[in-house]
Write a structure and sequence with these properties.
By secondary structure, the chain is mainly beta. The protein has a domain at 62-79 and 90-222 and 232-249: Neuraminidase. 3% of the residues lie in helices and 45% in strands. A 7-stranded antiparallel β-sheet has the order 24-25-26-27-28-29-30, covered by helices on one side.
Length: 449
């Protein structure tokens, strides 16, 4: 046991380049525990126990962080850490809201955006060492259907880009999905609304990177014209600080389902599934990773090694701190209807590679929802393990090694099918993890030094 802890500490030091005392998770801070009887053991779940906490986090290069969520009373709540891992008491930003998203500037200015009860997006900001200001409208509501599913990315200059859905009803009464965006200046002033086009965001198909890159999937294929290619395909929307919004064709992966995205200032990566069957709590098939080349065009999906082509799922992707492509995914050991529990695997490839490397099994248990992000010169992967536990692995030079996870009560499986149960974000050598725990509380912990 002592030897294993020593190995884990050494791996953290290699990827973080931190002092031994700093290369560990902070003691998790717990917020807003649920009332008695909300432990999921009752035959029927009381209505007061049902919520959508959707915790979301952001972290800056110095380790300052912000977490935002919705408590069981429907309030949008936030907690900040001006020093790595030192989270404050929670504050209420509004008495009623949904699905917050957070961004953090290098100077510690925090921005939280959410949907209010009328369907209007609002935001509140806090400079380091101060309190959050009053809620302010981000943009006029796009239609009676309201705006939703915002994703924010903080740029190095302190500005914030926000991507969101703004559906509407056509004159024929059809429900039409549409993507819009707004930029907040470093001083917190909203700009004009940018109309991006028709399309929507999936559960995990938007991401924000430490350099301010914001990626969303997907816009619908453009309308057919005589000179259009036969299969125009969907398009990604990409925001890069100093460049603005651009569009990247996803035609190269038209045969796969796009499930996750990640982007930096120089490259994009997509987690895909070559679908073999659907309806089994999502799609199953062969997980893959697609990446843009030096010309900025998206290449074909590189498919992961699997034992059975109809049992792979949950592709999570990132570009690690050394530029390698990283794919975490799951493959069921046996067929089991309406379950996404399965062992977790990883594969890593150099930029420009034409095939993925050999797969590495990270955990053989009944795991759930792996996520991966860059960390230092490598990457960090986390997933929900059995018995409400976290498991964590660090990638260095293309290989993952299991390391210590945050202590105490881990993520809850209650409501996992409709709730965004946790969030992981990184910046340099810092990683922040927030989750909805088994006692109904939202918990936050930070790794790094």
């Amino acid at each position: 046991m002592v030897l294993m802890r020593l190995i884990a500490s050494t791996v953290l030091l290699l990827v973080l380049g931190a002092a031994p005392a700093a290369a560990s998770w902070s003691a998790p801070r717990a917020y807003d525990p649920a009332p008695a009887g909300c432990d999921g053991k009752a035959r029927f779940i009381p209505i007061e126990c049902v919520g959508e906490p959707a915790p979301r986090v952001a972290v800056n290069p110095s380790g300052a962080a912000v977490a935002a969520w919705v408590d069981l009373r429907g309030r949008v709540r936030a907690a900040t850490a001006d020093r790595a891992g030192r989270f404050t008491a929670a504050v209420t930003l509004t008495k009623s809201g949904l699905r917050p998203t957070a961004a953090l500037a290098p100077d510690g200015t925090a921005t939280v955006v959410w949907r209010d009860a009328s369907g209007t997006l609002r935001f509140a900001r806090r400079t380091a060492g101060r309190s959050f200001g009053a809620a302010t409208r981000l943009a006029p509501r796009g239609s009676k259907a309201g705006d939703d599913f915002a994703k924010a990315a903080g740029a190095p200059d302190g500005s914030v880009a926000v991507l969101y859905e703004s559906p509407f009803r056509s004159p024929q009464g059809q429900y039409v999905e549409r993507l819009r965006a707004v930029e907040l200046s470093a001083g917190g002033r909203p700009g004009a609304v940018t109309e991006l086009g028709r399309g929507g965001l999936g559960r995990d198909s938007s991401s924000a990177a430490a350099d301010g890159t914001l990626v969303g999937c997907c816009l619908a294929p453009p309308a057919s014209t005589p000179d259009a290619p036969p299969a125009s395909g969907a398009r990604l929307v990409v925001f890069r600080p100093g460049v603005g919004w651009s569009f990247v064709s996803a035609t190269a992966v038209a045969a796969d389902a796009i499930e996750t995205v990640f982007g930096t200032g120089s490259a994009l990566a997509l987690g895909t599934t070559k679908v073999e069957q659907g309806g089994d709590a999502g799609v199953l098939g062969v997980p893959g990773l697609a990446r843009t080349g030096e010309d900025g065009a998206l290449g074909p999906a590189l498919h992961a090694p699997v034992t059975r082509k109809d049992r792979g799922l949950a592709p999570g992707v990132t570009i690690d701190g050394s530029g390698r492509s990283v794919l975490l995914y799951q493959e069921k050991a046996r067929s089991q209807a309406f379950s996404r529990d399965a062992p977790v695997y990883a594969t890593v490839a150099a930029a420009g590679a034409r095939t993925l490397g050999a797969r590495q099994r990270l955990d053989a248990g009944a795991d759930y929802e792996p996520t991966v992000r860059p960390l230092g010169s490598g990457a960090i992967g986390v997933w929900q393990a059995e018995r409400e536990r976290w498991e964590v692995a660090i990638e260095v030079n293309g290989r993952f090694r299991r390391v210590a996870a945050p202590r105490g009560l881990g993520p809850s499986r209650l409501g996992e099918d409709f709730s965004y149960a946790y969030d992981l974000e990184t910046n340099g050598t810092h990683a922040v993890l927030a989750w909805s725990a088994g006692d109904g509380s939202v918990r936050v912990s930070e790794l790094g030094g």
